[in-house]
Design goal:
With 292 residues, the protein is of the alpha/beta class. The protein is built from nine helices and 13 strands. The strands form five sheets. The chain has a five-stranded mixed sheet. Strands 1-2 form a two-stranded antiparallel sheet. It has a two-stranded antiparallel ribbon with strand order 5-6. A hairpin with a 2-residue loop joins strand 5 and strand 6. Helix 6 crosses helix 9 and helix 7 packs parallel to helix 9.
Length: 292
């Protein structure tokens, strides 16, 4: 080796330091700190070089109601072809003064809760979401077609608030990706329904909500119920995340259902699916807050 061509008595001091430094680099290059090695039985994984191009698998949190009672909800979600990561009972029990929720599927596994779905450029959200089912009957229609929605109780809200905050924190889920089932499948779903307290949850840090001042800016003095241009509303909803809403300027069935789903989330006092000024203003306020 070249290092041996100069005797130890005649080797310059600088070369000694260079030799030591090179040897240290060689040793470092030939070994890996044991803390970065993971033994998996028949092979070992080296985790020394994590890639920058990565993010969390879980990007979305989807909320549902079961439309069933406790017993049937648990049976269907554990024995059938559908599932969810968590189930919140009608009256969650307490243990050490803390609400108990049921985990049915580990978060790193796929649950079958979203079905055919899309949101803001993503499809098949089962692959990238955590799903929570809440025991709630949803709604019933009487003989005259009058619809009655069932409210959520305080014990459910307390349990759900703790659960959702924890999931969001651990997975870095952004507010605009905390969604209703009807947001991601507006043509076929209505859960968690018009009585789910989205504004209250947003105030707790769970989910998106528009700023009142921005809504008023886009309302621009119009009456909330004043008709608005359908294409303008379609474009705003599409920009916010409702990918499949038509862009044709017509208040067709698909457009009405999507507008109604949006209204259930952000303007539950009127969910008729009409294209009105307040709905447009809310949509534009959300786009400004979360998409600009």
């Amino acid at each position: 080796m070249i290092f041996n061509s100069v005797s130890s008595t005649t080797r310059p001091h600088g070369l000694k330091l260079l030799t030591v430094g090179l040897l240290a680099l060689i040793v470092a290059g030939c070994s890996t700190p044991r803390s970065t090695l993971v033994d998996r039985g028949d092979y070992i994984v080296d985790t020394t070089h994590p890639a920058k191009g990565q993010n969390e698998r879980v990007r979305f949190l989807i909320l549902h109601y079961t439309a069933l009672n406790d017993a049937r909800s648990l049976e269907v979600l554990t024995q059938g072809q559908v599932s969810a990561h968590y189930l919140v009972a009608k009256n969650p029990p307490l243990r050490d003064k803390k609400p108990v929720v049921m985990q049915l599927v580990p978060e790193d596994m796929r649950a079958w809760h979203a079905g055919v779905s899309n949101w803001n450029g993503r499809v098949n959200l089962n692959d990238s979401s955590v799903g929570i089912e809440i025991v709630n009957l949803g709604f019933t229609d009487n003989m005259l077609g009058v619809r009655t929605w069932y409210p959520y109780n305080e014990t459910q809200i307390t349990a759900l608030a703790a659960l959702t905050k924890d999931i969001i924190k651990r997975n870095n889920i952004t507010p605009d990706n905390v969604l209703a089932h009807c947001d991601i499948a507006p043509l076929r779903k209505q859960d968690p329904g018009k009585l789910f307290p989205w504004k209250r949850f947003a105030e707790m840090g769970v989910g998106a909500w528009p700023d009142d001042a921005t809504v008023n800016k886009y309302l621009a003095g119009r009456q909330p119920s004043a008709p608005t241009d359908v294409l303008t509303l379609q474009r705003a909803l599409h920009q916010y995340g409702y990918d499949k809403i038509p862009q044709n300027g017509e208040l067709d069935k698909e457009t009405r259902l999507t507008i109604s789903a949006f209204q259930m989330h952000f303007r539950p006092s009127n969910i008729e699916g009409n294209a009105d000024a307040q709905t447009e203003a809310i949509a534009k306020a959300l786009v400004e807050k979360y998409r600009t």
